[in-house]
Hints:
Blueprint lengths: L3 E7 L5 E7 L11 E3 L8 E5 L6 H12 L3 E6 L10 E2 L2 E2 L3 E6 L4 E6 L8 H14 L4 E8 L11 E4 L1 H8 L5 E2 L4 E2 L1 H11 L5 E7 L7 H15 L8 H7 L1 H13 L10 E2 L1
Amino acid sequence: MVGTARKAFPLENGFSCATETHAMATDDSPTTHFELSEAAVEVDRLVVGFTEYGLAGLTAVDYLSERLSMTRAGHLAVTGPPTITPFEGGVPRHHTRLYVDEARSLAVVVAERLVPVEAADRVAAAVTELADRLDAESLTILTGIPVAHGPEDHVPFYIATDGYRARYLADTDVRPMGTGFLDGVTAALVADGIDGERPVGVLTTPAHPQAPDAAAAIRLLDALAGVHDIDVDTGPLEAFAATVESQYRALAERLEAADDGAISADRMYM
C-alpha cells in the first residue's frame, strides 16, 4: 500500500485543503476536503446549511446538531486569516463544522462563513468529497429563497435530481419549485448531482430578511423530517433562534453589506 502523509495547501480567500498526499503524488496536486476526527462515521444522509438569505438553512442544521446532541467530527481547514472565527462564551470554533449521529446515520455541515463566488466550486468539491468519505447515500441542502410571496407560499419546495425525486420525494407532499436558477455552492452541488450517482436535493422555502428566520427554518426541518424520516421536535426552535439572533444578525449584516460581485448569497432567482 502506498504511504500517506497529511498536508495543508493554501487556497484563495482563506480556504485550504487538508489532504492525504500519496507518495506518488506531487505537491502541485492538492485535493480540497474536510479535516475529520476519529468521531467521523459512515452515514446514509448528509445535510448541509450555508450562510445565505434569512439564514434559514443555517439555523435549521445548527438546531438539528444541538437538538439531537450530535457529535462534532470535523471541519473545513483554513490557512491564513479567516474572514470570521465564531465564538461563544469566550470559546472559539471553526466556522464550517461537521456533526454526526451514528445511531440515526445522519451527518450535518453547519457553515457559518459566507462563501465567496470564486470559492464556490472548491467548497462544493470539498462537500462532495466529504459525502464520498462518509459513504453518504444522499446529499440534501437546506436553504431559504428571497422571493415575493404570500402566506399561502409559506411551505417547503424542492429542486432535486432524478434519483432524489424517485427515492425520497415520490410519497411526500413537498412541492416542486417553479422556474428559476440556483447559484453559488448550492448550484455547484446540484449540477454535480445531475449526472452523478448520489441523489442530491435542495429543500427550500421563501424566507424573510430578518435573521434568523425561525419560521422558515421550521418549515425546512419539517420537510427534512418527512422526506428522510428523522424524528426531531421543532417546537423549541424559535427559542433556539432567539439565543443565536445577535450572532446571526451580524452574519446577515455581512451578507447585506457584501459586494454582489464577490459574495454568493446561495440563492435562487425567480
